[in-house]
Structures
1.
Amino acid sequence: AQRVTQPEKLLSVFKGAPVELKCNYSYSGSPELFWYVQYSRQRLQLLLRHISRESIKGFTADLNKGETSFHLKKPFAQEEDSAMYYCALVITGGGNKLTFGTGTQLKVEL
Amino acid sequence: KAGVTQTPRYLIKTRGQQVTLSCSPISGHRSVSWYQQTPGQGLQFLFEYFSETQRNKGNFPGRFSGRQFSNSRSEMNVSTLELGDSALYLCASSLRAGRVDNEQFFGPGTRLTVL
């Protein structure tokens, strides 16, 4: 069965510092990967997805199939980036079933 | 347009009771998925419905069931509630099913407390 691992429960960085939220997955095929974000008192929402190759709010994520990783990166953290971040995957033929990691709480300090 | 709505937002039940939660997807969305969120297990997939048919089911006991109506609204039911069923239940809707690049839009959740 597929699995998503986010090793850090909490990541604290200073404003302006680079951010890297780690995500590793296990699946024998080629899944589609996503990052979802939940800001304080807001709904869970899509941040970015691998298939779109996009940069959202300065965040990017690169898929490394050799290391089965999909780390989320941003060169300069902003205070408004403080939130809970979830890495998730969908497998081919799995419909809309998202398998989530346990999440990383990002805290950006001034 | 209006987002995904879930009712009720909060619910308190006692062990052994049953509960029904409701989800109204974004207009035009035909796929609805349900997730359970707990501090211990995180976000776990319950089931997915598309055009009134269950397309996917997670690893939950048969006490958890769901359905979808012709207007795409969905309900999930939990019978014989246990303390461990206390959780935030999230509903997500998307335009279609079967495409891995689907964006899912989440509702605010229903907080269920079982006493």
2.
Amino acid sequence: AQSVTQLDSQVPVFEEAPVELRCNYSSSVSVYLFWYVQYPNQGLQLLLKYLSGSTLVKGINGFEAEFNKSQTSFHLRKPSVHISDTAEYFCAVSAPSGTYKYIFGTGTRLKVLA
Amino acid sequence: NAGVTQTPKFQVLKTGQSMTLQCAQDMNHNSMYWYRQDPGMGLRLIYYSASEGTTDKGEVPNGYNVSRLNKREFSLRLESAAPSQTSVYFCASRRSRDNTEAFFGQGTRLTVV
């Protein structure tokens, strides 16, 4: 079975500062990894995904994430955040074989301060 | 192109009442999912349907039933609502396991009093 851990429930950061949101996963098989963003009162939308190949993945809005198999991590980074990045961010995992489950972490609320 | 449509957007129920949350997608996706979102707990998978004609339990299925009516529609039923089912419910769909992005509806905010 797969699981996802997001250790930081809230991350405050000043505008134009860098940010890292942490995600660790657990799985006995190879996985696909994702980051989604949820703005207030909206559904989730995909930021980026890792399927295979290069471990550094670039997404929308200047975000990127790095897949680290040895540390079972997929941390999300942005070098300079904007007020508009204030949202909740979810890490998710699915498997390319076996179960069709699509499992999410508990989310990290990013608050960008002026 | 509507994507994933959920109805209703808001609902208040009394304890013990029943209701069905509707979800429809127009992207010809094979897999569909129901999640609930609660503060501090993220999105928890209630039920999913890998393909038309199949449904499986997720992480928190107790108190819910689902129906995959056809390829487009996947409904979630609360037979006897409880205050613990107060939550925001999201439906999502994916084309297949290999096409891995999930598309989400706007959510249904359900309050059980």
